[in-house]
């Protein structure tokens, strides 16, 4: 293979050129201006809603600008950067404006059984944005930046096997839990394989056979994801289609149409059906996917909330600064915890393979108990994320947020660098790449995020080394034949 672990972290020739420096650090300048707007508005604004209005509007301009730069420069178009900022254009832009409207109308901001003070919400929002800057800075520092004219090396094989494993592993829930973080990565195998097919074969997008495989693969991914009962997982099934429309110039003009169609599908079908299925009566022997299908076929979801209500629910569900704002208020009242809530890291790095009864690493149940929603941690029926930014601020304040998330971003960037700028070259790299894309928008706590990164590096780095070694051995006879 053209890129191996041996040269992954070697500085590329010409890395000091202005062009590469601009590609690595230019987007951070835009992000820094956004952060300045947030802090200045927080300092000068008399009403907390103003901070959410002004900064949220700035997010809807700056984040798409960063996405535009990334799509133009990244070989695949889709990258951890473009996906992260695409998600947060809504979650930190439109959702912030929505919560500004709630504050302006005097509507209380609820966080489970707690109520968030308006001043805490504004401060928590800006603090969360500081965390996004730290994450972005660490990521840009370590990520791979391809040289001008650099092309993808020849791809390997095994992608059909990866697709099969990705489908089968999701039918064994206990198997995934037993594998820990590695099992969580394998569940993206089929989506990663389909994504690679789109990348490799998109030049044939005018052929009917290409569209047949893409549509069939997307449909299978959607059906299998019904088992998870997650609205997000169901919509992630369409990621390869979105990538296809973004990569191909002839299809790019239809990208807004695809986006509007998927938005309508989510708000009009996926969100109300999943919500209604969770309230439906259970039937003995019925799986979660069976209940979702039954809810849809019976039309029991049509009497629920409409599109506007579903959009509102999404804004409120995706606005992660709310738990961060709660923890900001906790610090104002009780002070920092100085690492006390990271006690789970004492056992988190022990593989579940060697300790089957290891306590859960996720702190969602404990946090649900902490905020007063359950009498004990054992009785907690819901998991609530502290968010990585919230946990770091709770313990170490603003320096902890920017430095801690900067370190996490650098770890993500190091994993990304291991996949190289062209992760489609082999199955392990592409599944790790897709895992990074999704993990960056799902950081329930800072500590658990670091644990997941560590386990994936321990398992996958040796695997990539073995694949690279096998590829070099296969290439040696060919090189000798050419020399002769």
Automatic annotation (TrEMBL):
Keyword Chloroplast: no
Keyword Transmembrane helix: yes
Source taxon at top rank: Bacteria
Keywords: Membrane, Transmembrane, Transmembrane helix
Residues annotated as transmembrane: 25-45, 51-69, 81-101, 121-142, 154-171, 177-199, 208-226, 254-275, 396-416, 450-467
Protein name (database record): O-antigen polysaccharide polymerase Wzy
Species: Polyangium spumosum
Phylogenetic placement of the source organism: Bacteria, Pseudomonadati, Myxococcota, Polyangia, Polyangiales
């Amino acid at each position: 293979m053209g890129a191996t672990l041996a040269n992954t972290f070697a500085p590329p020739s010409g890395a000091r050129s202005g062009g590469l420096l601009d590609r690595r650090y230019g987007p951070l300048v835009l992000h820094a201006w956004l952060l300045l707007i947030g802090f200045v508005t927080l300092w000068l604004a008399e009403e907390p809603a103003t901070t959410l209005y002004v900064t949220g509007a700035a997010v809807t301009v700056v984040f798409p600008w960063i996405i535009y730069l990334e799509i133009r420069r990244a070989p695949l178009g889709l990258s951890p950067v473009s996906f992260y900022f695409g998600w947060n254009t809504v979650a930190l832009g439109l959702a912030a404006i929505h919560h500004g409207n709630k504050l302006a109308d005097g509507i209380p901001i609820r966080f489970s059984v707690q109520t968030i003070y308006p001043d805490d919400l504004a401060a928590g929002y800006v603090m969360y944005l500081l965390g996004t800057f730290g994450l972005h800075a660490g990521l840009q520092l370590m990520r791979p930046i391809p040289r001008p004219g650099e092309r993808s090396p020849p791809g390997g094989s095994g992608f059909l096997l990866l697709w099969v494993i990705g489908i089968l592993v999701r039918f064994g829930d206990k198997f995934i839990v037993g594998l820990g973080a590695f099992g969580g990565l394998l569940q993206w195998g089929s989506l990663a394989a389909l994504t690679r097919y789109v990348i490799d074969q998109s030049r044939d997008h005018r052929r009917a056979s290409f569209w047949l495989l893409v549509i069939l693969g997307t449909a299978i991914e959607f059906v299998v994801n019904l088992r998870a009962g997650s609205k997000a997982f169901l919509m992630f099934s369409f990621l390869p289609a979105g990538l296809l429309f973004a990569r191909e110039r002839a299809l790019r003009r239809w990208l807004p149409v695809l986006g509007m169609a998927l938005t309508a599908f989510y708000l009009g079908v996926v969100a109300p059906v999943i919500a209604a299925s969770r309230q439906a009566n259970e039937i003995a022997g019925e799986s979660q996917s069976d209940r979702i299908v039954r809810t849809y076929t019976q039309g029991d979801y049509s009497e629920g909330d409409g599109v506007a209500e579903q959009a509102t629910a999404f804004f409120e569900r995706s606005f992660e600064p709310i738990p961060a704002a709660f923890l900001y208020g906790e610090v104002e009242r009780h002070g920092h915890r100085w690492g006390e809530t990271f006690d789970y890291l004492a056992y988190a790095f022990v593989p579940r393979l060697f300790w089957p009864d290891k306590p859960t690493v996720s702190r969602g149940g404990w946090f649900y108990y902490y905020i007063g929603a359950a009498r004990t941690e054992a009785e907690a029926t819901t998991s609530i994320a502290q968010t990585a930014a919230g946990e770091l601020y709770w313990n170490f304040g603003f320096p902890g947020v920017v430095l801690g998330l900067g370190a996490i971003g650098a770890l993500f960037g190091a994993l990304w660098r291991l996949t190289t700028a062209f992760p489609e070259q082999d199955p392990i790299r592409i599944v790790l790449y897709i895992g990074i894309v999704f993990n960056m928008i799902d950081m329930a706590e800072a500590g658990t995020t670091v644990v997941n990164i560590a386990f994936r590096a321990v398992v996958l780095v040796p695997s990539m080394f073995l694949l690279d070694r096998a590829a070099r051995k296969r290439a040696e006879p060919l090189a000798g034949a050419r020399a002769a």
